[in-house]
Design a protein that fits this description.
This protein has 142 residues and is mainly α. The chain has helices spanning 2-18, 26-77, 81-110, 116-139. The protein has one domain (2-139). The chain is rod-shaped. The N and C termini lie far apart (50 Å).
Length: 142
Amino acid sequence: MMRDGRFVVLLFLTGVLCLGVTISSPADTGTITKEARETVEAVKEYTIQQKETFQRAAHEEFTAVQQQIAVLQGKVRDMSASARADLQESINELEKKMDMLKEQLNKVQTTTDENWRVIRSSVETTIEELKDACRTVMSRVP
């Protein structure tokens, strides 16, 4: 993120120079510095908002899959012993993936605002894999 902030400042200063603006006094320098800081703060705030939005959406997906697993467990109880054993194994696998997702979500929460995007991709992949696996198991339940 720090690199992104520096890039924004550099881009801003390049734009100022391209427009032919000259810095003729310390007041001009102060104004530019103030505007650059404000730009960096705006970028930071945007990143924080993106992280929070992602966390909410991922938590909602997590809760939805938890509910689907609970429904599956309820249906499995009413099945024959052989069918129940087969599906219970699949449900156990889903629960392992849920634990992995929970760990990843905890990492997103505890990571810095600058570095959370590194984890984001793996969280999104795990959510999609979990949803696909859940659909597969659901399709096997009468």
